[in-house]
């Protein structure tokens, strides 16, 4: 099984994706047919330049005043607060085990929320002067709700993608963060068109065939609570206990934990390198359904990274059936020290490290069983 | 592994193909985008009506005289001769084992070749009055070579498929046979558009996920030789010995061998039924790459079944990588009595029960190794 699975990781690169770390780069948007034939049908990512240069947002959103004035009459927006920027991620629990931590979500006027983001940026991230990392995001079609006052600044959908995929996006989400916010490895049940408006986003990408290299294990769910008074976070396990299957791999290692992490996750660190892609203003990343992705960001001069992503329905076709078959097979190797302890936990999970939006996927049923995706927003980008 | 694989067979039907035996039926040709999105990308077959009603062939080819006059100045055509109609199929060798038998291929003037086909039809197939079954076919783009005099009677390519797939067909093949010719289960590395001009073709179809249900095993290659003098066939093993991986399952059982065959191939006979499709004049079957297919035919009033198929290059993408992964996994089950004896032989085969045309695929290399597809024409339809 070890050899078969490693051959799969290699073959998808040999045949389709390439053996390097770069993805295809198009200088202008593809036709719907090209996009469908060369990328969606093949489940293959690409970066597209000159894709959104006509959006008013590309110039007008560079000014905080434009944004705050446009949204001054809007209802509050959802801000995700964490102490270190890693919401929806694995963090150490006081007993030294890892848990899956959700952020504290607060509703604030946009002006205050934006202030939190830009002041974090201006503070020294290693000091204690700013203990709160704020990320404006809500994967619930928020661009059409909380941010509807900005809707004329961007396209409602990506025309060539809509024509190729045969329907309008299911959700359009706005993301405003700074360099301290990181989204950990996960995957989504959507075709994702990811457009950067200001700053840069840095993606690491791995195809769904690399499932076993992500070491998806069950972690106890926890949630941050932020106290305005003390300015401190507390992290509490959910009660009743809930387990979330999540990717164990953190691709960016600090010198002090590098050796330990690399020996825990050798399939990731010793296998093919992830594809890397930086998305700049005016560009769109096509991030295919079921691909594992990790996201960091660099801010613009104003200390913000702003992006919009379009989630289109994916096809649950033979590729998805093959993926589920792959998932159901255990990779057993002397190189995989984590498997013996945790394999049994994984056997019955029906979804794993998926984004959980506002119930988009609740109606999808594989083999008659509805995937258990209830339970609040989890992740994705 | 047994459970995982059976879940795959079921899930691809639940999600994408449907649980019955029917495939999608379109009343008119799809747009290129629809075809690509709903069928090619999903590796899902469909039958398309009113697809070729504008072809002059649909009326003019009903007359033998039109065909013989049009081709009277053409070079000889290739006729495949067998005693029972099963060329490129498993047949019992005198020692009571099975071999993979290729037909006797003879070059004849078209008029004589057509006469062989129509007289077979008029004879009693159960008697010995006609021992030779003739099938006009050659999977080498023969419509553009041997039959080029007929080229203005049909389209050179299928416009909506060409636009969807992004290139012209690699080969266009003509098939003229009668009810005695049967093509055994196999698969092709091509997207196949199959158009019937006269008579009917009856397909059984199984998705590539059902690989293990076909019991692909290695059989010694043999070839028929036909003696004009004696009117008899001899079947001889190739020397040096060559083994051909081929599907073991014959889906149409005679009463006397039904029980034995069903117990030898339970995964096929006890699993999901194959999809069934009859293609009539004016219709096109989209037969996706890598699907297993078995073909029978019913003749028109003149005793002939005439069809043209268009082979388009397939994409060797993530689906193909998944398929090879599936292939590399052994299905071990108490229900599979054939595996223990033959599994070792299968392990190293690089291609199996594929059509072998005139070197179309020789340049394709997976993991750096060129597939061994030399060795003469084998099958397909």
UniProtKB/TrEMBL annotation, chains A, B:
Signal sequence range: none
Which SUPFAM superfamilies does the record match to this protein?
A: Clavaminate synthase-like
- Residues covered by the JmjC domain: 133-327
Q: Which InterPro entries match?
A: Cupin_8 (IPR041667), JmjC_dom (IPR003347), RmlC-like_jellyroll (IPR014710)
Q: Spell out where the chain crosses the membrane.
A: none
Family that this chain belongs to: Belongs to the JARID1 histone demethylase family.
Under what name is this protein listed?
Answer: JmjC domain-containing protein
User: Species name for this entry?
Assistant: Quercus rubra
